[in-house]
């Protein structure tokens, strides 16, 4: 397996678990290969946390998920915009992305699909493109939200990478009832993408911009 060969990677996650859902396997592989991975979350979704969990539950679940991957807390950037209201804060979100870019200077950026049907995801994707138009930029798959996703880039994965992705997702106890959080879904989707390129497991991405 060829090394992904990135020094620094940034994951843009509108909501706390989006990055793990979309590219958790790639995160696990990059860290294994020595890439410094940074994670930006833009909402703790306090308005959507189900009882009996406390409103700030997702912050601690996110940090636990990052520890599972081996990402230290100082590489995690957390904003707390109100869920489903990102379009109202578009310029502020862009500025947050730019501010973190100046600190991190990543080689590659992972973000939602530009045509994701969720308004928060769209804002982060479009502002991410504006901020990072000079970097390699790829969109991760969230099939329950993707209207269109060009399956143009595949990352080969081993079972240990998928197991690590599942372990990280299981840190989100407050989200366990969601169908896309279940280990069976994560593994079956990775197997499906693997079949497409003749290996056991993979994640798929849409290439927005590739800088060589």
Task: List the main descriptive attributes of the protein structure presented here.
Rossmann fold, alpha/beta, single chain
The biggest sheet amounts to: 7 strands, mixed
Question: What percent of the residues sit in helical stretches (DSSP H or I)?
Answer: 25-40%
Number of domains: 1
Low-confidence stretches: none
Per the CATH scheme, the topology name is Rossmann fold
Kindly state the number of beta strands.
7
Q: Which structural class should the secondary elements be placed in?
A: alpha/beta
Average residue-wise pLDDT: 96
CATH superfamily: LmbE-like
Strand order of the largest sheet: 3-2-1-4-5-7-6
Name of the CATH first level: Alpha Beta
Order of helices and strands: EHEHEHEHEEHHE
CATH architecture: 3-Layer(aba) Sandwich
Please indicate the percent range of residues in DSSP E strands (runs of 2 or more): 15-25%
Distance between the termini: 20 Å
